[in-house]
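Retry 2 of 3 after timeout on previous attempt. Resubmitting structure tokens to design endpoint.
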């Protein structure tokens, strides 16, 4: 490479830089603003979770099993009679409750599953679910009562449940005894 080539390159460079001016010092080392990453929205995961919840509580229900005024009772084997007796008498403190009044069956199913998950995570033992007596339903039958009865029996974390005392909702609500968190 000779001096003519170097001078020629320099001339080409200077020609290309015509009109370009030096930035003042306040712009030196200025980094570009960082863009915030969009928050990941796990839509597919949420859809899959809802599908799992639906599948977990989707066995067919024989609605003839329950008559409108019937009290509900369910217990897993091995539970002590004294525990069941205290549950029926409402002698355990209610740690939280879920009110399903005005909810559709599909809304109630999701709410019950989410409520039970929350109760398990926070180690709640005794809760009340208010399903109502069905007086506002189309055929005056307790649709949610029938379905909640069915759904709860399918959940492993539910040890027992029974209709509440009259002052706590009577046959329109249930006390639910849940497993301890391991």
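Retry 2 succeeded. Sequence:
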């Amino acid at each position: 490479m000779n001096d003519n080539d170097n001078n020629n390159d320099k001339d080409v460079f200077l020609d290309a830089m015509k009109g370009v001016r030096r930035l003042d010092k306040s712009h030196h080392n200025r980094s570009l603003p960082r863009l915030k990453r969009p928050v990941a929205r796990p839509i597919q995961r949420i859809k899959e979770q809802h599908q799992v919840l639906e599948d977990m509580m989707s066995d067919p229900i024989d609605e003839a099993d329950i008559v409108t005024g019937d009290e509900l009772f369910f217990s897993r084997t091995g539970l002590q009679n004294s525990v069941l007796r205290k549950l029926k008498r409402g002698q355990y403190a209610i740690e939280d409750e879920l009110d399903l009044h005005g909810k559709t069956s599909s809304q109630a199913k999701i709410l019950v599953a989410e409520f039970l998950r929350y109760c398990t995570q926070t180690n709640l033992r005794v809760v009340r679910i208010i399903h109502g007596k069905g007086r506002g339903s189309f055929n005056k039958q307790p649709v949610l009562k029938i379905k909640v009865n069915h759904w709860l029996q399918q959940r492993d974390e539910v040890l027992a449940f029974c209709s509440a005392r009259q002052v706590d909702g009577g046959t329109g609500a249930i006390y639910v005894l849940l497993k301890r968190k391991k």
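Attempt log closed. Strands lie at 73-75, 96-99, 126-130, 158-163, 173-178.
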